[in-house]
Input
Amino acid sequence: MTDDTFLNGVADALAALPAVEGVALGGSRAQGTAGADSDWDLAIYYRGAFDPDHLRAIGWEGEVSAIGGWGGGVFNGGAWLTIEGRRVDVHYRDLDVAEAEIARAQRGEFDVEPLMFHLAGIPTYLIVAELALGRTLRGEVPAVDDYPAALRRSAAARWSQMAELTLGYAAANHAPRGMVTQCVGSIAIAACQFAHAVLAAEGTWTTNDKRLLHAAGLQEIDAVIAAAGDDALAEAVARAGALARARLESATARIAGGTDAA
Output
C-alpha cells in the first residue's frame, strides 16, 4: 500500500467520526522532513462534544485516551495507534479552543502548560503553530498565515525571562552545593526556554521538542551539558547562559523597540 493510499484511507475514516469537521496532517510528514521510519501525526478538529469511543470503534490497534487524558489544556488527548503497520498519532483538537488561541496569539497572549516530553512545557500557541505548519486533508480547519508581530515580542520576552530565572536559581542554589542533577536539569529547561524565545523573536513556528535546540541554533548547549561535572557546575550554568543570550540577542535585534512588524 502506498503512503498516499494509506493516508487517504485513514483521513476518510477520521473525517467520518461524529463531531469532526476537519482532519489535518502535521509533523514531519506535513513539512516534508520525514524519514522512512517517521510516524504520522494527524489532528481531528471537532466542534462541541467528541466521544473517543467512536475512534475506538474503528478497531485500530493502540491506545485511545479520554478527552483530557493527556493532562488537559490545549493538548487534550489523542491516540497512539498502529495502522497497516504504520505508527500513527491522532490528536484531539477542539475548534473552539483553537479559534480562541488564534485570537489570543494575534494579541500576543499565551499561557505555558505542562505536557509530557516537553521539558519547558508548551505555549498554548503551539496549536496555532500546528495550523500554520500542517496540511488540511479533509473538511475545514482554521487558516493561519504569518506569525503575529505582537506574539513575536511577547513570547520572546516571556520565554527569555523564564530562562534567566531558571539559570539564576541554579547558579545561586544548585551549583554551590554540587547538585549535579538539578544543575543539568535547569540548564536543559532553560535551553528549551531560550530556544522558544529565539524562535518567537525570529517568527518561526515550532511544534515539539525533538529538534527545538537545533531549530533555534542552540545545539552547542549539548556540549556544555556533556562537559558538566561536579567541579564545573557553575561554569556550565554560565556558559549555557552566555551561548543562549548571544543567540537571542541576534534573533531579537530586528524587533527591538517594535521596529520589525513582520
The mean pLDDT is 91. The longest helix spans residues 149-174. Strands lie at 20-26, 40-46, 61-64, 78-83, 86-94, 112-113, 122-123, 135-139. The chain has two domains: 3-139, 149-258.
